[in-house]
Amino acid sequence: MKHDYFKYYNSKTLPFLIIGFFVTLYLVQGYWKISFSIFTGITILMMLISNYLWKYPPFKYLFWIDDFSGRYEGSLKYQYTDEKGQKCTGKLKHIKLINQNGHKLCITSFTFKVDGTPSSPSTNKGMHVEKTEDEQHYRLIYNYLNEGSMEQGFPPHYGTEVVKFIKNGKNKQLSGSYYTGREPFQTKGEFIELNWVNNDLNHKF
Q: Looking at domain 70-198, does it have CATH number 2.40.160?
């Protein structure tokens, strides 16, 4: 397992979980006279929780982060300064797909251009999650890599996003801002009302 495998687990409950698994497997092994590695058994159980059971009670209480997963749709408002020094702005449809489990959080983003075709996708590189100052919501901070577009004539580039996650009952929403190191024109902007739509993470490119 990677060194950060348990970074989303609640540090107060994780030791009790592991001890509980150890004692349970030890008793099962003794009662049924079955020979197996307790360490292997604990590893399998932890993998089941992290990959499949993490968002269902009572297992979700083992984690300190919320369930961000799903498809979010809304708008991206961008701005950049062109070669003439003129500020250019616009607003486009934007989609974020959050693929999450108990030990991993991956965000893929893309924007629909004016002609309706999707932009090249961006995927996060690294992820920092923290609670907001009032501890009511969450903030996701990460760098991402955009694959670029030979058709549009711009190369791959890195960017940074700071996204706020707000949950109100069953409604989930993202908002925030971004900036890029894109050449020749650095861009920046904000996300507007990216609302959770469903759990469909598929896209056609």
A: yes
Contact 8, 138 (CB under 8 A): no
Q: pLDDT-based confidence at 149, cuts 50/70/90? A: low
Q: Which two tokens stand for residue 119?
A: 């932009």
pLDDT in tens, 127-143: 999 999 999 999 999 99
Report helix, strand or coil for 115.
coil
Cis preceding-peptide flag for 184 (omega within 30 of 0): yes
Distances (CA, A) of 153 to 150, 156, 181, 184, 204: 5, 10, 15, 10, 22
> What does pTM read for this prediction?
0.86
Choose between 51 and 40: higher pLDDT.
51
Cβ contacts of 41-48, under 8 Å, gap ≥ 24: 42/18, 45/21, 46/18, 46/21
Taking the alpha carbons of 133, 130, 123, 70 in that order, is the dihedral positive or negative?
Answer: negative
Q: Where are the chain's structural domains?
A: 14-62, 70-198
Cβ–Cβ contacts within 10 Å for residue 104, how many? 15
